Amino acid sequence: MADRGYSTLTKLGLGALTFNSALAIYNSWGDAGSVAFVLGADAALVLLFLCLREFERGGGRGRDAKVKAAVSVDVSLRFSSSSSSGSMFASRVAPLMPPAVAAVVWLLAVATAAGGFWAFFLN
């Protein structure tokens, strides 16, 4: 019997994310790119959380084709959302850094995406 409710820690974490995002949107209200970044990053985090929850709730058993298909979609969504989060972070941070540090930021974003691809699909 799986518990369908969220734990108190989960609720506190999502509440902190919501509060922090609301403050970030408020502080950058005139800049549409910053607001879009905050909303996109939050959407990626929530999607990642929901996919992980679905996987932990029963996707790990792999008894039938539907569960296997859901796990495959879950892994693909996790990879794409984590890669997009890394590239969104790099696109916002790299312009603020000196050129050498910006190159390292982008290199780390690419390395994270490549490592995720290797871990999810090749390993």
From TrEMBL:
Ordered alphabetically, the record's keywords are:
Membrane, Transmembrane, Transmembrane helix
Q: Indicate the transmembrane segments per the record.
A: 12-29, 35-52, 100-121
One Pfam family named in its UniProt record: DUF6490
In terms of InterPro entries, this protein maps to: DUF6490 (IPR045501)
Q: Which domain of life is it from?
A: Eukaryota
UniProt name for this protein:
Uncharacterized protein
Please give the organism. Miscanthus lutarioriparius
